Amino acid sequence: MRVLIAKDYDELSAKAFEVMMGIVKNNPYAVLGLATGTTPLGLYRRMIEDHNAHGTSFAHIRTVNLDEYKGLPKDHPQSYAYFMRENLFLHLDIEASNTYIENGMAQDEQAECACYNKLLAEMPRDIQLLGLGSNGHIAFNEPYTPFGSETHVVDLTENTIKDNARLFSDISEVPKKAFTMGVKQIMQAKQILILVSGANKAEAVCKTVCGKVTEEVPASVLLLHPNCILIADKEAASKL
Ligand code: GLP
Asked: Taking the complete model, does pTM exceed 0.90, yes or no?
């Protein structure tokens, strides 16, 4: 794992943009694994600005997202499908039909997971973008998720529900379950880019980078990936 420390969030986003656009400019048919959360927003803003200023095209790019809340329809403002549309896709020339995310409303969980597994197998990702949960989770793979896991439905931990409550008007509105890509599938991406910002992630960064590879800290599996870059701002890197 290559660890880059940025002086602030802006520099973190600029470095992430360089890595992401290196992939897009090299291969206009690339498959991008994308993430939600507040951390990638600076990167997404830069991608939009670059598209507007330089016409970088996403017409042939395909994307696949990590996770989605169970029970939220894709037009619900707190759904990850909505987040991706509003914060990225609507502002690029990407085809909506080339963007994939789990269907949070699927009644048959098993069938939805099998369908996503098939999709991931057919669309090898050139890069997988990740954020980091304050408990070390990646996507919605909470501590002790087996490293061999594929797409599954997860019961979110109290910690994650609390962390994500800031984006809802009340903690009671945060869904208790979510669909998530598995750890095994995250690791199958050719390259991984994980972005971490803020002092509340410092402990998790430390456990990810300096500790041992353990299912207790899902992100620690990334130490085993041959091409992984972690970009942290100064606050997130403060315990390294
Ligand atoms: C959520 C998402 C993760 C994301 C994490 C961190 O739990 N499922 O994919 O990485 O939040 O989010 P943030 O970047 O807002 O701190």
From this structure: yes
